[in-house]
Design goal:
77% of the residues lie in helices and 2% in strands. By secondary structure, the protein is an all-alpha fold. It has a domain at 281-496. Helix 13 (307-328) runs antiparallel to helix 14 (331-362) and helix 14 packs across helix 20. It is globular and about 70 Å long.
Length: 496
């Protein structure tokens, strides 16, 4: 039995969450749904860690569904890059579930709570499916599963503006998915295959055809919408701001990150031999958009009064850092981008958890309502300060490590404008983080304000665990950097 389960771990990574979701829907009991979602999340994390360990020991894992070998059947293919992504997604999910109990009760109507856990599990299945599949059409299917469940989760908030945010996300997400599937269709028309490994050998032969060039443009635009790459980002600020806090935590740490991974697969696996960065000038386009995101979004964040919205624009800037690493198309640059993806997922999840704690007790996440909050919620605000250090890139934090390697990669490439952008964006991060710190620590709380207490430990512990993990990898950088370098080398080398 153990050998059977071990053999089928890749497919179990998706199937467990996919089967558990309708169980929550049928039970309709919030407590039972939470227990199921928690058990599944922690089981998926264990499976992801086993798969990562197995890849490190034995190399790439290939799993053919239904016994049909690729390229005729659907293949799940796990190398260092997507094994790392599986760990990131399941780590966030495992931290979110203990946190979710109190937060969901406070922000989602009781009669809809079971629906949240159902959608969460569907979203988890979609995200893990995107990471693990070796088929471009199958990736589209999982992309839609995760997107549709995201729309529902965002709309579950009590604020009516959550419905508008979900609707805008639905429109933009549908456009992105349409662009992606058009690109997939054009690739199939040119090559007759949907398997990523097969496409990597077929596309170089027809790389100069107009069909393939247009397919690449559609794929890049579609995934750019999904990952909220500036200027295709307009859905993200409202979605993160008006969604229930636990939804903001999960989506900010996983949704855009998995879309970035999908883009990595398209560029460095499917089009690995087509010279998209040299011949098509894609690196210059992406680097320009990345710099625009890093500077522009950071400037906009400074002027936000709602801290969730501030963090949303901060996420756009951090996505810029990751895309800059991708644009460099070098081992060090790509590895720095992958590590920043990991570090930002931890930091931003923790910071949105802080917002959930504050909203639970304070009823507001506006800076003007944060005066003197550090005195009554010391643990919560301390987590914000440490997480803020990570966003800025203060030494000993995970954010410093990834920015340091990104700077080294930019120096190696001679991209001096990118170096300036990284430094300026980090300085701008100091400003918007300081605005919150100043209100919480250096301004006096209004005497008429209602008395509040610290957030419950069920929310504080997961938040501080993510902070501690971020600090750990900020001081033990080789652990993640070695994996990221291995993943970058595999991606840049294409599928062998």
């Amino acid at each position: 039995m153990a050998a059977f389960i071990s053999t089928h771990l890749p497919v179990l990574q998706v199937v467990m969450a996919l089967l558990a979701a309708p169980v929550c829907l049928v039970l309709r009991r919030p407590n039972a749904a939470w227990v199921i979602a928690t058990i599944i999340s922690w089981t998926l994390l264990a499976v992801a860690l086993v798969l990562l360990d197995r890849v490190l020991e034995t190399g790439t894992i290939n799993y053919s569904l239904g016994g049909w070998p690729a390229p005729w059947g659907i293949e799940y293919r796990i190398d260092l890059a997507n094994a790392f992504m599986l760990v990131i997604v399941t780590t966030i999910g495992s931290a979110v579930m203990p946190y979710a109990r109190a937060s969901v009760l406070a922000e989602i109507p009781e009669e809809r709570i079971y629906l949240f856990y159902c959608m969460y599990l569907l979203n988890m299945a979609g995200l893990l499916g995107i990471a693990i599949t070796g088929d471009v059409f199958n990736l589209f299917v999982f992309l839609e599963i995760s997107s549709l469940s995201s729309y529902v989760m965002i709309s579950l908030g009590r604020d009516r503006r959550a419905l508008t945010a979900a609707y805008r996300y639905l429109i933009m997400g549908t456009i992105g998915a349409t662009f992606y599937i058009i690109g997939v269709g054009m690739m199939y028309m040119a090559t007759g295959s949907l398997n990523m490994a097969d496409l990597s050998t077929l596309i170089p032969v027809v790389a100069d055809s107009r069909t393939v060039l247009v397919a690449l443009a559609f794929l890049t635009t579609g995934l750019g919408l999904k990952l909220a790459l500036v200027p295709l980002h307009m859905w993200l600020p409202n979605a993160y701001t008006y969604a229930p806090s636990v939804v903001s935590v999960f989506l900010a740490a996983t949704g855009t990150k998995i879309a970035i991974y999908a883009m990595l697969r398209i560029f460095f696996t499917v089009f690995s031999g087509a010279g998209v960065f040299d011949g098509f000038g894609l690196g210059q386009i992406l680097s320009a958009l990345a710099v625009l995101a890093m500077i522009g979004a950071s400037l906009v964040a400074i002027y936000q009064g709602n801290i969730k919205r501030l963090l949303a624009y901060s996420s756009l800037a951090q996505i810029g850092y990751i895309v800059l690493g991708i644009a460099m198309a070098s081992v060090l640059g790509l590895a720095a981008g992958i590590v920043h993806l990991f570090n930002h997922a931890l930091i931003k999840a923790a910071l949105f958890m802080v917002m959930g704690c504050i909203y639970l007790r304070n009823g507001s996440v506006k800076i003007e309502d944060m005066k003197g909050l550090a005195k009554v919620m010391p643990w919560t605000m301390a987590a914000f300060v440490v997480g803020g250090f990570g966003l800025i890139g203060i030494p000993l934090t995970g954010g410093f490590i990834s920015k340091w390697y990104l700077l080294q990669a930019a120096i190696e490439k001679g991209w001096w404008l990118a170096i300036i952008a990284i430094l300026v964006s980090s300085l701008l991060a100091i400003i918007y983080i300081w605005r919150v710190v100043e209100a919480a620590y250096f301004q006096t709380r209004d005497k008429k304000a209602a008395a509040i207490s610290e957030a419950p430990w069920s929310m504080l512990v997961p938040m501080w665990v993510l902070i501690a993990v971020s600090l750990f990898f900020g001081t033990h950088a080789t652990l993640t950097m070695d994996v990221a370098i291995g993943a970058a080398e595999a991606l840049l080398g294409g599928i062998q």
